[in-house]
Specification:
This protein is mostly helical. The chain has a single domain, classed as Farnesyl Diphosphate Synthase (Orthogonal Bundle), CATH 1.10.600. 69% of the residues lie in helices and 0% in strands. It has twelve helices and no strands. Helix 1 packs parallel to helix 5, helix 2 runs parallel beside helix 4 and helix 10 runs antiparallel to helix 11. The longest helix is centred in the first third of the chain and has 29 residues. It is globular, with a radius of gyration of 19 Å.
């Protein structure tokens, strides 16, 4: 069920909570928002995994899907708008899942991948009596959308040998890298804050240099987590320089193997 995505989803739910409240409060509401984010994510992943079963024999748990769906409905049942967003999210996720099928839109449905994160953010905002289509939330929803779609494109490049109908398969790896970099650049231009976007800049360079897709995607996932945490810190007035240094330490860890040692274990180049 892609456990590596869970920290990102929890951080995203916290970001929505902070955006709505203007502060970070460790209470039952924050826990509710995090739980909703994770459970909704499980629902979306179930659809994706179900459509991938015939491709790479992935296993899905119908019981987990039913349990998550019931809990989400219980948490949202008093808010018709949140339930409507959930239905739209699952519909768009279904469309995205059809990238495994041979139809004329298969190469382009990657654009719907960002709807899951946007849906989670919107549901949480609605639960806080906020209107997600209000202009003030544009700089929350739009960058997250473009970042997610950009990262997903790299996932499709990574899986190009297995997938048959995706954008990289139809238009080539070079074009796919260019589209991914452009989408991420759009997010940068929307945010216009170096310390805010810094965690994503190494991933952007990797896209321009067309690094190995497997490594780039995994690095992109971690970078997105740092970005989301950084965004929350920025909103509550926490000094982003500390997050900057934390990410810089994480980034420089990858140079560990490039330092030669007498033991002979550190002779790799980077």
């Amino acid at each position: 069920m892609r456990p590596y995505s869970m920290p990102n989803i929890i951080a995203l739910a916290i970001l929505a909570n902070v955006f709505a409240l203007g502060k970070l409060i460790l209470d039952e509401t924050l826990l509710r928002d995090a739980a909703i984010g994770v459970l909704v994510w499980i629902l979306t992943v179930f659809l994706l995994e179900m459509f991938h079963m015939k491709i790479d024999n992935r296993k899905v748990s119908l019981l987990t899907f039913i349990f998550s769906l019931l809990v989400v409905i219980i948490l949202l049942y008093q808010n018709i708008y949140a339930l409507l967003i959930l239905c739209l999210l699952l519909f768009f996720d279904f469309i995205y899942s059809l990238k495994t099928k041979n139809w004329f839109l298969s190469p382009f449905v990657f654009i719907f991948r960002g709807c899951a994160e946007i849906g989670i953010l919107s549901i949480i905002l609605i639960l806080h009596n906020q209107n997600p289509i209000d202009a003030k939330y544009f700089l929350l929803l739009a960058p997250v959308f473009f970042i997610t779609v950009s990262r997903n494109m790299i996932g499709d490049i990574r899986d190009i040998e297995r997938d048959r109908y995706t954008f990289p398969k139809k238009f080539g790896i070079t074009t796919a890298y260019a589209v991914s970099a452009t989408l991420l650049l759009v997010a940068f231009l929307l945010l216009q804050d170096f310390f805010l976007i810094f965690p994503l800049t190494p991933a952007f360079l990797m896209l321009l240099l067309r690094w190995n897709a497997y490594f780039t995607h995994s690095f992109f996932v971690v970078s997105t987590l740092f970005f989301t945490i950084n965004y929350s810190a920025h909103l509550i007035g926490y000094n982003s320089i500390l997050i900057f240094l934390l990410f810089l330490g994480f980034l420089l860890y990858f140079t560990y193997g490039a330092v030669p040692r007498k033991s002979g274990e550190g002779t790799a180049t980077i």
